[in-house]
Amino acid sequence: MKYFRTAVLTATLLSAHSVGASELLIDGMNATASAKDWQTLCEQQLSKAREHFTAVEQGTGPANVETVLQQYEQVNYALQPLMPASYIKAVHPDKAVRDSAEACIQKIADFDSSIYLSQPFYQRLSAVDDTNLKADTRFFLHRLLRDLRRSGVDRDEETRNKIFALQQQITELGNEFGRNIQEDVRTLEVGIDDLAGLPEDYIAERVKTGEKTVTLTTNYPDLYPVLTYAHSDKLRYDLRVLAMQRGYPANAKVLKELISRRHEMAKILGYNSFAEYNMETEMIGSPEKANAFLQRINTALKDSVEQESQRALARLQKIDPTAKIVNQWQASYIDNLIRQEEYALDAKEVRQYFQYANVRDGVLKLSESLFGIEIRPWKTEVWHEDVEAYEILEDGKLIGRFYMDNHPRDGKYQHAAYWGLRNGIKGKQIPLAALAQNFPKGLMEHGQVETFLHEFGHLLHSIFAGQHQRWLDNSGLAMEWDFVEAPSQMLEEWVWDYGTLKTFAQNQQGEVIPKELFMKMNKARDYGKATGTAVQLFYAQLSLQYYMNDPAGFELQPMMVKLQQQYSPYPYMEGTHFYANFGHLDGYSSNYYTYQWSLAIATDLFSRFEKEGLNNREIAQAYRDKILAAGGSKPAAEMVEDFLGRPFNEDAYINNLKSL
Ligand SMILES: [Zn+2]
């Protein structure tokens, strides 16, 4: 078996690096590689990358596209086979393999840091004459130069060494922060009677015959149904508290350290804060603008939040007449009651129409009809029996491949996310992408269907963005971070379209979701949106304030409690430490505002589909050509303007919020 895996691995290596110029790279990833294989692959590719990089640094003679940019591109090609490391770390069933992939990620990050601190490289790049460059090449060159300067390449050696050391610490701390959350699964033993209200299939899956108690975990598939359906206030409270204690106390120290190191690095580079440093490269531009944007959203929301909160409280008081406020562990439960009673909408009635296999096929079919592609199963090696693999064709030509690891299991990444596994380059290699999600194999909630389509939107974006590119750094989801969610957020609108739903939403008897039920869902859709957005504003402010202020001047816990009071409709829950399990405080760091910002863009983009038809092939094609296909080859603001025929504005989003 070991020998076989190594052979597969070698084949991957060979095809990645020894193919003739005319041969298109279409291989899958090294799905069955062992921990040792990963270590070997990592060392081999990094050593190749280093060799190429040294050649760029030591280059003499005229500096131009061929001698500098194309030579540097070889470094990126050498690193391509290591791209799946991050996905492997998230999904591989074998912890040894996950750890090996993680070690590799750390090494890649170290190597990246050394690139961005190389003065010989910076000098060679700066010497490239950009006057006659094609637009995508010029964009690539200038972004690279800017990022090198942002790493401190033009500083003295002592400063550069200091920055390099800080970046290493930041990566390590970030990994530690995430690991502390992922591996901290808490459990709660509860009596069978406490499960009253939960769906039958939920109980059947967990309770063994003859047993009087059941052990629930803080993992989402256990947690969310409890918060939504369990009649027991105590059960919801207990599990919610446990979930918000994850990562604590370890992450209290890790996060403070992480924020401090980032602040220190930003100061050395001449910025006031890490947020200022971080937002310089985004559409939004600065923490002050982000703060102002969040304030405008907050103002637009005020009345709607108040109305929703009063309504929820009135319902809670029917259960507990002494209640003064709806708490966090009660919100989903009360929401569901109101949906059932006032919108006659029962989540259980809805979910019968969303069997996983039908939903998956529906998502694929929608993508096919919107964008004129064909998606079919792809026979290839995978790392677990749950994994599904597909390939995408256009006019019979293979244009991309992807994996979906869509069901929960121990040790696996617990959210839903997209990973790029290989960037597409015109005529050279097709894009390879993947999703890791955690859906039941049976019935899904409508919200999960929305999540599925959202993540699939990222996947499609990366595939379409990898068709015309000439540079790896321009391919895939390489655009500004505060734009990257917009296409996926826009695509969510399609699960709120009956024409789309009726193509796949069928129950076991083969009955299509009734129009009447769908109308009810749409009516109930906006309910809870104001409070939900307010919670998002709290998260965004937490991320912004942690990173725009000097960490020497505040403590994590009190600042979080204060921001929660200011923005969240729900009071702080004693004994919880949300910041210790809010993983985005590493990945998004200061930039969680992006969720709201890109939603504002998505709403603006969607206005054109709304006017001209959700199934309008022509509009969908224009959208694909102007926005998705552009990848990271130009500023996002330009793509949006190309599609809309005018610059982006947030009016459509603000109007939506005011009308809630
Ligand atoms: Zn997303």
How is this fold's topology laid out?
Elements: H1 2-17, H2 35-57, H3 65-79, H4 85-91, H5 95-116, H6 119-126, H7 135-150, H8 157-182, E1 187-191, H9 200-206, E2 213-217, H10 220-229, H11 233-243, H12 250-268, H13 274-279, H14 287-319, H15 328-342, H16 347-351, H17 356-371, E3 374-377, E4 388-394, E5 397-405, E6 417-422, E7 432-436, H18 446-464, H19 481-484, H20 486-491, H21 498-501, H22 515-525, H23 529-548, H24 556-567, H25 584-587, H26 594-612, H27 617-628, H28 636-644, H29 651-658
Parallel strand pairs: 5-7
Antiparallel strand pairs: 1-2, 3-4, 4-5, 6-7
Bound molecules: zinc ion.
At CATH's second level, what is the architecture of the largest domain?
Orthogonal Bundle
Looking at CATH, which topology of the largest domain would you report? Answer: Neurolysin, domain 3
Percent range of helical residues = 55-70%
Please state how the strands of the largest beta sheet are arranged side by side. 3-4-5-7-6
CATH C-level of the largest domain? Mainly Alpha
Low-confidence stretches are 1-20
Assign an overall shape: globular
What's the number of structural domains? 4
* Main beta-sheet strand count, sense and barrel state: 5 strands, mixed
Q: What integer value in Å does the Rg equal?
A: 25 Å
* Oligomeric state, counting identical vs distinct chains: single chain
The ligands bound in this entry are: zinc ion
